[in-house]
Request: fold
Amino acid sequence: MPDLADNADSVVELWTADAERRARGKSAPESDPGFDGLNCVTCLEPIPTARLKMGKIRCVDCQERLDMANRMTRRR
Ligand SMILES: [Zn+2]
Reply:
């Protein structure tokens, strides 16, 4: 069970990872051969327009799951 400090840390990390992606996205936009420009590449649910404008190719749920997986493979 994560304690409160761990929890706060992971929120900061999530935010930082997202900021990093946005910064990198300027030179290399996130893309996927299967992305149709409207729907999440993972679950095919429609992505909200606001997210599409940010260059996202996944819905919030799938993005969170991916971020979580990335965090687990990138142990400190
Ligand atoms: Zn999705």
Remarks:
- Residues 4-73 form one domain.
- The chain has one domain: 4-73.
- Residues 4-25 form the longest helix (22 residues).
